[in-house]
Amino acid sequence: MAHESWLVTGDRSKQPIVVAPGAADAHGAVTQVDNALGKFSGPVPAWFRVVERLGYWWYGICVVVGVVLGLLLVPAETQWKISWGFALGFLAAPLSGAILYRLARLQARAAGFPTTAKALADAKGTARPTNGEVHKHVTTVLGADPALESRVHRLAWRAAGDDGSARKELEGLWEKADPEAAAALADKFAAIRAENARLEEQGKI
To answer: What are the TM regions of this chain, as residue ranges (predicted)?
Structure first.
Protein backbone atom coordinates (compact mmCIF):
# COMPACT_ATOMS: atom_id res chain seq x y z
CA MET A 1 0.00 0.00 0.00
CA ALA A 2 1.19 3.52 -0.78
CA HIS A 3 0.84 4.75 2.81
CA GLU A 4 3.70 2.48 3.88
CA SER A 5 6.10 5.13 2.59
CA TRP A 6 4.85 7.73 5.06
CA LEU A 7 3.58 5.59 7.93
CA VAL A 8 6.38 3.27 8.97
CA THR A 9 7.15 1.05 11.93
CA GLY A 10 10.51 1.74 13.55
CA ASP A 11 13.03 -1.07 13.32
CA ARG A 12 14.25 -0.45 16.86
CA SER A 13 11.21 0.87 18.71
CA LYS A 14 8.55 -1.10 16.78
CA GLN A 15 6.37 2.01 17.08
CA PRO A 16 4.58 3.74 14.17
CA ILE A 17 6.16 6.93 12.82
CA VAL A 18 4.47 9.44 10.49
CA VAL A 19 6.45 11.30 7.83
CA ALA A 20 5.46 14.88 7.01
CA PRO A 21 3.40 15.42 3.84
CA GLY A 22 5.71 16.53 1.06
CA ALA A 23 8.93 15.50 2.83
CA ALA A 24 11.51 14.67 0.16
CA ASP A 25 13.98 12.58 2.16
CA ALA A 26 12.86 11.60 5.64
CA HIS A 27 15.02 8.53 6.21
CA GLY A 28 17.41 10.32 8.58
CA ALA A 29 14.57 11.88 10.58
CA VAL A 30 12.70 8.55 10.82
CA THR A 31 15.86 6.83 12.05
CA GLN A 32 16.40 9.61 14.59
CA VAL A 33 12.84 9.29 15.91
CA ASP A 34 13.09 5.50 15.97
CA ASN A 35 16.36 5.64 17.91
CA ALA A 36 14.93 8.20 20.32
CA LEU A 37 11.87 6.06 20.98
CA GLY A 38 14.33 3.24 21.70
CA LYS A 39 16.06 5.46 24.33
CA PHE A 40 18.98 6.50 22.10
CA SER A 41 19.26 10.27 21.68
CA GLY A 42 21.82 9.89 18.90
CA PRO A 43 23.10 7.33 16.36
CA VAL A 44 23.26 3.80 17.76
CA PRO A 45 26.95 2.79 17.86
CA ALA A 46 27.91 0.18 15.28
CA TRP A 47 29.57 -2.04 17.88
CA PHE A 48 26.35 -2.15 19.91
CA ARG A 49 24.33 -3.16 16.86
CA VAL A 50 26.70 -6.12 16.52
CA VAL A 51 26.08 -7.04 20.17
CA GLU A 52 22.31 -6.78 19.61
CA ARG A 53 22.47 -9.07 16.59
CA LEU A 54 24.14 -11.71 18.73
CA GLY A 55 20.97 -11.95 20.81
CA TYR A 56 20.99 -15.00 23.04
CA TRP A 57 24.36 -15.99 21.60
CA TRP A 58 25.74 -13.37 23.98
CA TYR A 59 24.93 -15.76 26.83
CA GLY A 60 26.87 -18.49 25.07
CA ILE A 61 29.89 -16.25 24.63
CA CYS A 62 29.81 -15.24 28.29
CA VAL A 63 29.53 -18.86 29.39
CA VAL A 64 32.51 -19.87 27.24
CA VAL A 65 34.57 -17.03 28.70
CA GLY A 66 33.39 -17.97 32.19
CA VAL A 67 34.42 -21.61 31.73
CA VAL A 68 37.85 -20.57 30.44
CA LEU A 69 38.33 -18.28 33.45
CA GLY A 70 37.10 -21.02 35.75
CA LEU A 71 39.59 -23.49 34.35
CA LEU A 72 42.39 -20.96 34.68
CA LEU A 73 41.60 -19.34 38.02
CA VAL A 74 39.41 -21.54 40.23
CA PRO A 75 41.51 -23.70 42.60
CA ALA A 76 39.36 -26.85 42.48
CA GLU A 77 38.79 -30.06 40.57
CA THR A 78 37.95 -29.75 36.87
CA GLN A 79 34.22 -30.39 37.23
CA TRP A 80 34.02 -27.63 39.85
CA LYS A 81 36.04 -25.30 37.66
CA ILE A 82 33.54 -25.86 34.83
CA SER A 83 30.55 -25.44 37.17
CA TRP A 84 31.94 -22.18 38.50
CA GLY A 85 32.60 -21.09 34.93
CA PHE A 86 29.00 -21.76 33.87
CA ALA A 87 27.68 -19.87 36.90
CA LEU A 88 29.99 -16.94 36.23
CA GLY A 89 28.97 -16.81 32.58
CA PHE A 90 25.23 -16.83 33.30
CA LEU A 91 25.65 -14.11 35.91
CA ALA A 92 27.91 -11.99 33.72
CA ALA A 93 25.71 -12.11 30.60
CA PRO A 94 22.80 -9.90 31.79
CA LEU A 95 25.10 -7.66 33.83
CA SER A 96 27.53 -7.07 30.98
CA GLY A 97 24.59 -6.57 28.58
CA ALA A 98 23.18 -3.86 30.80
CA ILE A 99 26.58 -2.17 31.07
CA LEU A 100 27.10 -2.25 27.31
CA TYR A 101 23.59 -0.85 26.76
CA ARG A 102 24.35 2.02 29.12
CA LEU A 103 27.69 2.72 27.43
CA ALA A 104 26.04 2.68 24.00
CA ARG A 105 23.41 5.17 25.13
CA LEU A 106 26.08 7.47 26.54
CA GLN A 107 28.04 7.29 23.29
CA ALA A 108 24.90 8.01 21.29
CA ARG A 109 24.14 11.00 23.51
CA ALA A 110 27.65 12.36 23.00
CA ALA A 111 27.20 12.16 19.23
CA GLY A 112 23.62 13.40 19.16
CA PHE A 113 21.32 15.17 21.63
CA PRO A 114 21.43 15.46 25.42
CA THR A 115 18.01 13.81 25.81
CA THR A 116 15.62 11.71 23.74
CA ALA A 117 13.07 14.52 24.03
CA LYS A 118 15.54 16.87 22.28
CA ALA A 119 16.09 14.31 19.52
CA LEU A 120 12.33 13.98 18.97
CA ALA A 121 11.87 17.75 19.00
CA ASP A 122 14.62 18.21 16.41
CA ALA A 123 12.93 15.81 13.98
CA LYS A 124 9.30 16.81 14.60
CA GLY A 125 9.11 18.90 11.42
CA THR A 126 9.80 15.81 9.30
CA ALA A 127 8.90 12.71 11.33
CA ARG A 128 6.75 12.20 14.41
CA PRO A 129 5.88 9.18 16.53
CA THR A 130 2.24 8.19 16.71
CA ASN A 131 0.30 5.32 18.28
CA GLY A 132 -1.25 2.02 17.30
CA GLU A 133 -4.75 3.50 17.09
CA VAL A 134 -3.71 5.98 14.40
CA HIS A 135 -1.92 3.19 12.54
CA LYS A 136 -5.05 1.04 12.70
CA HIS A 137 -7.28 3.88 11.53
CA VAL A 138 -5.00 4.73 8.60
CA THR A 139 -4.70 1.12 7.47
CA THR A 140 -8.43 0.48 7.68
CA VAL A 141 -9.51 3.70 5.95
CA LEU A 142 -7.05 3.38 3.09
CA GLY A 143 -7.87 -0.31 2.72
CA ALA A 144 -11.48 0.71 2.13
CA ASP A 145 -10.80 3.79 0.00
CA PRO A 146 -7.21 4.40 -1.25
CA ALA A 147 -8.35 7.66 -2.87
CA LEU A 148 -8.43 9.23 0.61
CA GLU A 149 -4.68 8.85 1.05
CA SER A 150 -3.73 12.51 0.76
CA ARG A 151 -6.40 13.56 3.29
CA VAL A 152 -5.61 10.70 5.65
CA HIS A 153 -1.89 11.49 5.48
CA ARG A 154 -2.51 15.10 6.52
CA LEU A 155 -4.81 13.98 9.34
CA ALA A 156 -2.34 11.38 10.61
CA TRP A 157 0.46 13.96 10.57
CA ARG A 158 -1.59 16.49 12.52
CA ALA A 159 -2.80 13.80 14.93
CA ALA A 160 0.83 12.88 15.62
CA GLY A 161 1.29 16.51 16.63
CA ASP A 162 -1.46 16.21 19.26
CA ASP A 163 -4.14 17.85 17.13
CA GLY A 164 -7.34 16.57 18.72
CA SER A 165 -9.59 17.66 15.88
CA ALA A 166 -7.49 15.75 13.33
CA ARG A 167 -7.52 12.66 15.52
CA LYS A 168 -11.32 12.89 15.83
CA GLU A 169 -11.77 13.35 12.07
CA LEU A 170 -9.53 10.36 11.36
CA GLU A 171 -11.49 8.30 13.85
CA GLY A 172 -14.71 9.33 12.09
CA LEU A 173 -13.34 8.08 8.77
CA TRP A 174 -12.40 4.80 10.47
CA GLU A 175 -15.92 4.41 11.89
CA LYS A 176 -17.34 4.75 8.38
CA ALA A 177 -14.78 2.33 6.93
CA ASP A 178 -15.35 -0.34 9.59
CA PRO A 179 -18.69 0.26 11.33
CA GLU A 180 -18.70 -3.18 12.96
CA ALA A 181 -15.37 -2.62 14.70
CA ALA A 182 -16.44 0.88 15.69
CA ALA A 183 -19.69 -0.45 17.19
CA ALA A 184 -17.81 -3.16 19.08
CA LEU A 185 -15.43 -0.56 20.50
CA ALA A 186 -18.32 1.69 21.50
CA ASP A 187 -19.99 -1.24 23.29
CA LYS A 188 -16.73 -2.00 25.10
CA PHE A 189 -16.41 1.58 26.33
CA ALA A 190 -20.07 1.62 27.35
CA ALA A 191 -19.54 -1.54 29.40
CA ILE A 192 -16.49 0.01 31.08
CA ARG A 193 -18.41 3.18 31.92
CA ALA A 194 -21.30 1.14 33.31
CA GLU A 195 -18.96 -0.91 35.47
CA ASN A 196 -17.23 2.22 36.76
CA ALA A 197 -20.60 3.76 37.58
CA ARG A 198 -21.60 0.59 39.47
CA LEU A 199 -18.38 0.56 41.47
CA GLU A 200 -18.73 4.26 42.20
CA GLU A 201 -22.26 3.71 43.54
CA GLN A 202 -20.91 1.00 45.82
CA GLY A 203 -18.17 3.33 47.02
CA LYS A 204 -15.41 1.10 45.70
CA ILE A 205 -13.79 3.82 43.58
So the answer is: 56-76, 82-101
